[in-house]
Amino acid sequence: xxxxxxxxxxxxNGEFIGYSSSKTKLQERINSYxxxxxxxxxNLAYVDIDVLPTYSxxxxxxxxETNDDDIYNAVxxxxxxxxxxxxxxxxxEDKYFVSKYPEAEQVMSKLKEKESNNIDxxxxxxxxxxxxxxxxxxxxxxxxxxxxxxxxxxxxxVEHVASLGMDMIEPAQGIITSRFxxxxxxNHKGLDIANSTGSAIRAAASGTVTYAKYNSGGYGNLVIISxxxxxxxxxxxxxxxxxxxxxxxxxxxxxxxxxxxxxSTGPHCHxxxxxxxxxxxxxxxxxxxx
Length: 290
Ligand SMILES: [Zn+2]
Hints:
Helix content is 16%, strand content 38%. The protein is built from 4 helices and 18 strands. The chain has helices at residues 23-36, 68-77, 101-113, 138-145; strands at residues 4-12, 15-20, 44-48, 54-61, 80-90, 93-98, 122-129, 175-178, 191-194, 200-202, 207-215, 220-228, 231-238, 240-241, 248-249, 254-257, 268-275, 278-280. Strand 12 and strand 13 (231-238) form a beta hairpin.
C-alpha cells in the first residue's frame, strides 16, 4: 500500500493556489479557455491572461485532496475576455454595432442600393473590446443612416438656395423651354419662358430699372431691375421695351413685350435672378416644379 500520490503544487503570481492531480489536463483546460472562452459567446475573440500558473511536482499524502477545479476557476477569473464585433461609423463616429462582418456589409450594400447621399462617409470598423456592444438589426441601421440625395433635376449639384428676402411673381406666362444651368453652348444663367410675340413681361418685384436697351451680348432688348440688397432681375429678348432707365416700377407692372431679339430661336423671355451679380436658379423661387 502506497501512502503517497504524485501531484503538482500550483502557484499563480507567486502564490500557492492548490494541488493539481494532472498538470497536463489542467493546463489544457486553461489553454482551451484562453482560445475559446467558455464557448458561450459568438463574439468572443480571445481571453487575455497575464501569467500562466507554474507547477512543481510533489508527492502528497493520500488523504490530501487535489483541487484542479478551484485552480482552473482562479486562473480564468483573472483573465480578461475580449469580444470582436463591428462598428458602423458615419463621419468617423460610431453609429451602430453589428455582430458580424457580413451584416455590416449588408448595411453598406443596402445604403448603396438606396443611393444614400452619405455613402462615402460610412465606414465599417473592426472592434475588439472587453465589453460587448448592443447590436442593431441591419434594417434599423440602414434606416438610421440613410440620407436622401438633394433633389436637383437641373444639374445634379448640391445647391444652396439663398434667400431673396422678398416675394417675386412670375414675370411671364408660357412654357419653360430652357432651364438654369443646363449646358448647351454655355452655362445657362436663366430660365426661358416661351409664349407668343407681344406677350406681357412683368416686373417680378418692385424696383428701379437700371438697364433698358438693346444688349449686343445676346440678350437683345433687355430690362434689368434692381430690387435692393444686391438683388437684380433680367428680362431678355423683348420685342418692345415699355420702361426706361431710372424709372421705378411696381411688382406686376408690364415692362416689356415678349420677342426674339438677340441670340434667340423664337419668342421667349430669358429671365434671370441675380444676387450680388451671381445668377441664381429662378426655379428655386418661381416656376417651382415646372
Ligand atoms: Zn435663356
